[in-house]
Amino acid sequence: MREALINALIHRNYNSTAATQVRIYDDKLQIINDGELTEGMTVEDLKKTHLSQPRHILLADVFYKAGFIESWGSGTLKIAAICKEHKLNEPEFEQLSNCFSVTFFSSTVENEPENEPENEPENEPENERYKMIIYEIRKNKFININQLATKIQVNRSTIKRDLSILKDRGLIIRTGPAKGGYWEILKKE
Fold first, then answer.
1. What would you report as the CA-atom Rg of the chain, rounded to the nearest whole angstrom?
2. Which of 10, 34, 73, 163 could form a disulfide with 52 if both were Cys (CB 3.0 to 4.6 A apart)?
3. What is the DSSP letter of 45?
C-alpha cells in the first residue's frame, strides 16, 4: 500500500482540487487519485516492465533519493509481487474518468490450499527482504540499521522488526555495543 500511495503522490494531478482518497471497505482498500495514465500507457502496461513518466519529476527524484522507491517504472510490478508473496489476490488497477485507482482485496488467492506445507526449514528466511538483509550483513558485518534501510529501500522500523525476527529465529546475532558492534550470521540459508 505504501508503494501505491507513493505512486499516487508522484503521479497525481496537482492542478485539481480533488484529494487523493484512501477508501477502506470490509473486503478491500482502494486508493483513488486525480490523474490519468500518460498518453499511450494502458492498465495492461502496468503489469509488465515499463517506463514511468511521472508528472512531477522533482517529487519522484526526492522519493528515489530518500529510498522510498527503487526506480521509476517498477512500482506497480512491486505491488503485484508483494501481494502474490502474501498470497493475496492481484491488485486491480483501473483508469476511470479523469482518475486512477488501485484496489487491494483482503481475500486470499482462490484455490490455495488452506494449510499449505512450508517448503522452507523453520529457521530460514521466508521472504526476499530477510535474504537481502543477510546478504548485506555478509558483505559488511558492521552495517547499521540506517544503511540497511537505504540498501533494501524500506524504513528503519521495518528493518528493526526484520532484524528482531531474524535474531529470534537464531539466524543472526548482534555482538558488541549498538555503536561499534557488528552482526554475525549463525546459520547458513
1. 19
2. 73
3. G
Is the Cβ–Cβ distance between 63 and 12 less than 8 Å? no
Nearest-angstrom CA–CA distance, 91 and 105: 7
CB contact at 8 A, 73 and 49: yes
Contacts of 75 (CB under 8 A, 6+ apart): 3, 4, 6, 7, 52, 69
| CATH number for the domain whose boundaries are 128-185 | 1.10.10.10
CATH class of 2-105: alpha beta
Dihedrals phi, psi of 47, to nearest 5 degrees: -95, 5
| pTM above threshold 0.85 | no
Contact 32, 18 (CB under 8 A): no
DSSP, collapsed to helix, strand or coil, labels residue 51 as coil
Within 10 angstroms of residue 146's Cβ, the number of other Cβ atoms is 11
The three-state secondary structure class of 16 is: coil
Please measure the distance between the N-terminal and C-terminal CA atoms of the chain and give it in whole angstroms: 29
Domain ranges in the chain are 2-105, 128-185
pLDDT digits (tens, 9 = 90+) for 68-92: 776 666 677 778 888 887 788 888 8
Q: Residue 59: which residues within 8 A CB-CB, separation 6 or more?
A: 9, 10
